[in-house]
Design a protein that fits this description.
This protein is α+β, with helices and mostly antiparallel strands. The protein folds into 2 domains: 108 residues, 2-Layer Sandwich (D-amino Acid Aminotransferase, Chain A, domain 1), CATH 3.30.470.10; 145 residues, D-amino Acid Aminotransferase, subunit A, domain 2 (D-amino Acid Aminotransferase, Chain A, domain 2, Alpha-Beta Barrel), CATH 3.20.10.10. Helix content is 26%, strand content 29%. The strands form 2 sheets. Strands 6, 7, 8, 9, 10, 11, 12, 13 and 14 form a 9-stranded mixed beta sheet that branches. A 5-stranded antiparallel beta sheet has the order 2-1-5-4-3. Helix 5 packs across helix 7. The longest helix has 15 residues.
């Protein structure tokens, strides 16, 4: 039987296990990394880019990764029916001993899970300025580590405000991203996106769009964003998400400005062609 939505496969090294160990360091400390990938007709077009970011994070944190070919084969087995969906890969540092000190030589604890695609938004997103700030920590900047409490708190603010998403700033007041997406703004005919050298996630979709749009990395203030000619969010699962409002600021549909970006994404990922 083919695996359907909600299917999960758990491993310790190359050994398949029934469930994560209760002492799993990813659960206890957020000591791990994850990737969330869009699957199109059973394939992951951006697999190599996701794995490269995962490997960068693993090297920085000193976490062992599972064998890449084995992990990809297991991911393919979850989508053996050729369906579309979302694939989530979580890799935690091995070892279950209590305490922060890593256990040398322990095989990684990791899992793959299959999920349905989120529904596309019916209209441009309504954004909220989040009060929760992102701490400056260059050692963790750019990578997709498992400690996401800042994003959890910020996302709760969005829900309380009745908005679709929220923009978060760092502790110095510069705009970093949305809670679960990167940010691009159009100013003076040029796209810009905040750097992620001190906090935030270097998104796989963001990496595709930087050269495609000839975009620049620039530290952005609240005024820079609110004064932009157009704004969109992006991530690897949902692609490009136009923004309609941010508090009292409203933007008309920017179809011409976004068309080139959507075409660029569709060349490398057919699931983003919309």
């Amino acid at each position: 039987m083919n695996a359907g939505a909600g299917a999960v496969r758990c491993f310790k090294g190359t050994a398949r296990v029934a469930a994560p160990d209760p002492g799993h360091r990813g659960i206890a400390y957020g000591d791990g990394l994850f990737e969330t990938m869009r699957v199109q007709a059973g394939a992951v077009p951006w697999w190599d880019a996701h794995w490269a970011r995962l490997a960068l994070g693993a090297a920085r944190l000193g976490i062992a990764l599972p064998d890449a070919a084995f992990a990809r084969a297991q991911a393919g087995a979850l989508f053996a029916d050729g369906g579309d969906g979302v694939l989530k890969l979580v890799v935690a540092r091995g070892g279950i001993a209590r305490g922060y000190a890593p256990q040398a030589g322990a095989p990684p604890a990791w899992q793959l899970s299959r999920h349905p695609l989120p529904a596309p938004p019916a209209a441009g997103l309504r954004l909220h300025w989040c009060d929760t700030r992102l701490a400056l920590q260059p050692a963790l900047a750019g990578i997709k580590h498992c400690n996401r409490l800042e994003q959890v708190l910020a996302r709760a603010e969005c829900d309380a405000a009745g908005c679709d998403e929220g923009l978060v700033r760092d502790t110095e007041g510069f705009v970093v991203s949305a809670t679960a997406a990167n940010l691009f703004v159009l100013r003076g005919g040029r796209w810009s996106t905040p750097p992620v050298d001190r906090c935030g996630v270097a998104g796989v979709c963001r990496a595709r769009l930087l050269p495609a749009l000839h975009a620049q990395e620039a530290r952005l203030s609240v005024a820079d964003v609110e004064g932009a000619d157009a704004v969109f969010l992006c991530n690897a699962v949902r692609g490009i998400l136009p923004v309609a409002s941010l508090g009292s600021r409203r933007w008309p549909p920017a179809d011409d400005a976004l068309a080139a970006a959507r075409r660029a994404l569709a060349h490398s990922h057919p699931g983003q062609e919309r």
